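User: Could you go from structure to sequence for me? I need the amino acid at each position, not a summary. Structure tokens:
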């Protein structure tokens, strides 16, 4: 079980395609930031996430590998150094499912409100239409009832953070949802 045959879209700050662990993993890339930032990852977050997903371990003599090193990656740049516009995220989500992503990772989010916002609605609709699993960060607020959108969508697999002891990290957002 190494992810072979699975395509995972990482919608984030981009992926460093020259990183030894990721150089052969990326099957398609698209920049949705409308000229705000060039291709590539100038923050490091998208590369970090992609390495957790599908890093091959090439840079560490196979000691540090991702959970699915056989998976193919779709690199959707939807964030820049200062943030992520909803329109960029929505465009990236649509692109990812049209590219055949089995899983879409969104390690991003913002405050949730009552009712469906456009990002939550997109998770619901794209999941229903394409059968894609959206894995989304819970957030970093560190309190109860702070799940960020779009992780607050019913169809999302929302993931909190753990610490080195495999316990809920102090900063991790947690439910219940609003």
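Assistant: Here is the amino acid at each position, in order:
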């Amino acid at each position: 079980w190494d992810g072979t045959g699975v395509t995972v879209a990482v919608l984030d700050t981009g992926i460093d395609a020259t990183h030894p662990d990721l150089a052969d993993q990326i099957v398609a890339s698209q920049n949705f930031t409308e000229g705000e930032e060039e291709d590539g990852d100038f923050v490091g977050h998208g590369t970090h996430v992609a390495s957790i997903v599908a890093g091959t371990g090439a840079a560490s003599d196979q000691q540090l590998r991702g959970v699915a090193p056989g998976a193919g990656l779709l690199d959707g740049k939807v964030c820049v150094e200062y943030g992520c516009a909803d329109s960029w995220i929505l465009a990236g989500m649509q692109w990812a499912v049209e590219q055949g992503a089995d899983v879409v990772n969104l390690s991003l989010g913002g405050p949730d409100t009552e009712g469906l916002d456009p990002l939550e609605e997109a998770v619901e609709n794209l999941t229903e239409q394409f059968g894609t699993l959206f894995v989304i960060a819970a957030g970093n607020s560190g309190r109860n009832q702070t799940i960020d959108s779009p992780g607050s969508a019913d169809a999302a697999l929302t993931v909190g953070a753990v610490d080195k002891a495999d316990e809920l990290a102090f900063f991790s957002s947690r439910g219940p949802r609003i």
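One structural detail worth keeping in mind: The two ends are 36 Å apart (CA to CA).
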